[in-house]
């Protein structure tokens, strides 16, 4: 008994001694990074690779842990959590901030930029304005990567707009909500992790998203058709709190910026590849993949024009400047 009591302080002394020794080296900075999206999503794979690169480049001095699936912080809260310093860094879809400023949803206007080349040009034309807008909230934009082109999942073939009327359509931002309204469907916002339940409980019977998210959520379990309408390519962005960033030493800041630039280039490439791969997975699992019929294409073009006008009205001078730069770069 006595021996045991006398051993305890000794163990504690050794532990304290080791901790003191260790503290001569600078303690690593640990950052938690929430994302709303799942482990298997290419975006999540890409940001984990970003975290690995930062860890390697800084010899473990900056250790970023990615928390997928909205497990740490829900999508609606991620931006404010970074702004308030609850977490230093996070990923979210840019267009989720549309109600703060319409420029954040410039990448979700139907047919404004629906190929990778145009999406890239639009990003170059809008990046600075968007980064400035975030900087006003002490947020630094690190990088942005698009989802594959958005299409429409249903349980029957869509020949014309009539087939979309009154469907209860899952949406994820104001643009997907608006397009649903304009084709006569009824939009319901549902986050990706909640998609399977929303279908199995009958809350929704159609959805707007990418081949990637359809494959990730096993759309074939509850849907039969995908219309590859290629409406727009919405982007995820990674933002860091300026306060947390400025606390890093110079070399670590540079390592973050370098890894961010690489993550952006890599992510765009992953997204392109994912489009083809996910379309193949959908087909393999029995989803009928088709392009819009001429009637549907015409309707979606009209809806696109309406939404472009509505967006330009909301986005004001900043929006006009983005459109001008975009058109000039395309000509
Ligand atoms: N997947 C995400 C955003 C766009 C996409 O392709 C979603 O469906 O919410």
UniProtKB/TrEMBL annotation:
CDD domains: PBP2_TRAP_BpDctp6_7. NCBIfam families: TRAP_S1. GO terms for biological process: transmembrane transport. InterPro entries: DctP_fam (IPR018389), TRAP_DctP_sf (IPR038404). Gene3D superfamilies: Bacterial extracellular solute-binding protein, family 7 (3.40.190.170). This is TRAP-type C4-dicarboxylate transport system substrate-binding protein. Keywords: Signal. Residues 1-27 form the signal peptide. It holds the Pfam family DctP. It comes from Halomonas ventosae.
